[in-house]
Amino acid sequence: MDSSVYYENEYGTVELTIYKTSNQFESSVNAIAKNDLVDDVIVLKNTKFELDAKVIIAESLVTVNMRNVYHFLNELKGHIDGDQIEMGGGNLFDMINYAKACQIFNTRLQLRPFVIIYCTSSEEVQLVYKRAISNNLAIRVRSGGHDHEGECSETDTILIDLSRMNKVEVDQKSGIATIGPGNRFERLTTLLAEQKVMIPHGTCATVGIAGFTFGGGWGPWTRSKGMCCERLVGATIILGDGSVKELSEDGDMQARELLWALKGGGGFSYGIVTELRLQTFELPRELIRFEIEWNKYELDPDTKQLKIVSENTLPTIQFLKEWEAVINANRNVESNVNHLSSNEKLIGTNLKISAIPSTENFDANTVIHNCIMYGYWEGNEKDLSKFIEKNFKNPQTYDFRITDIAGKKTNKAYGLNMMSNWDRESFHTVKLLLKGGVQEKSSKSRPISPDLENPAPHKITSCLVDAQGLGSKGHEALIRSLTSPLILDGNREMGLFTYITLGAISGVFYQDATKELESAFPYKDKQYTIQYQTWWNESLERKEEGLDNIVYDRINRALDWMQVCRDFNIPNTSGAFISFKDSSIPTEIYFDTSYERLKEIKKKYSMDKLNHFRTRKTII
């Protein structure tokens, strides 16, 4: 028996064909949808004499989503101004503005939300969130846009942008700063320094305070003041049911648990934070930002490539061990914060080591890599010089540069002068060297290279060094990972940079292993972070070359190097740091001993039963 049935509405037609015989295996029901309808056939019963099936007919998801977006926007009329909404349009001007608004810091990822809403208050965030969810539209939340895996945005979502929520107020009595999530460090640190206070900020001027804090918040103050999350004493958050909750250390159980989760337990999992309250500390009288560089790149006159050609070189393992000795000098020793030792005046530091091509007869004890140590020093230049002479031998092998100063004794704009991206390489500097230029030893008046703060395509991954340190096998493995056949000669000259940055955790703040700190950040006992990085197309010149850029012949191998490093067996390392996000690392590894408690907090207190607050690396 054959039979045909037609279904039709304004969006399209569906033709149903039914074929039934006494042989159940030859019987079938087929549906063919046309235009904007979709279908699904579910056979419920198929016997010799009976064929029972369920046919589902629906509009295509594209049609449904566009209708939902239309209703969503209509519901915002009278509540959200037109200049707060960005969704492109039919003319070139609108298309350009929309493309700019979509851009996040990692330009490797190109995401296109349905609509971007620039909220200016908690009430607007609450309204936009509730209207989006009621119209069955997924959301994302963006403050600084620096999520390395782009989880601050997504295609086909409603993007709630908080960048216009940039309030900064400091209570002079308590020292607590009330900070909007849209603040970026260049502006925020300048405003705080004007009031002679500071927070443990990061190293990149364009990073936003919200995601930085919720991810832990490593930076140039970590050794002295801890991660930024340790300073979070309160917040305002919009929960999954659309309600607003004030979080504080003396609030109810829900408030205390959610606050604990925000202190290093990742962003977005528990709600949308519309205000942070951070305990500031007094800005030191004198503060110095400095660099020490070993094994400098120089222009080889024969090959016209950048090589480490100087006779005054130092094996990588030697300066790595010297740096480790500095950050661990007083580990597990009681410290007097009013009388800091010389090592404790080094309030924060990281070490950047460039990767190189494989070498014949690899020897971890003799191989040479370019390296730059970055640091913040509390004190004067004379004491800093003595500290460096004492702790880093062979002064003929390195260049020491003071890059800027700050503190109570200067009125210079903190954010413009003290913010320097310790996690980036500068193609501007490379081009200067290729033209025969020389980087000066004293850099006090030298501006930050213009490409260090700009968005660029990149990939990163991470792990951390355990409390006992790498040991000889760990040192060898780390250095071997930086000496790879996947790194090609000439990468640097093309603006393709591959390297690691080691961020010190060990210091006066965390050195007492018995100290009880109420935060979800799980790696308080680690010595330092290891962040593998690959960046390219940082300069305007390279960006303008577009698809004709020769660097694309090499990127796959550089990204393969990243994958190899992610899985590299380095003894005495573990975990991963959520602010250095790599979506291929399981979520539990990022949160370690805090993971189970974070899952319970998410389920019990976020009021988000359907998990609307979700991305690839959120909790649950």
Automatic annotation (TrEMBL):
Belongs to the oxygen-dependent FAD-linked oxidoreductase family. It comes from Flavobacterium araucananum. The keyword Iron does not apply. It comes from the Bacteria. Signal peptide: none annotated. This is FAD-binding PCMH-type domain-containing protein. The keyword Flavoprotein applies. Residues 109-283 form the FAD-binding PCMH-type domain.
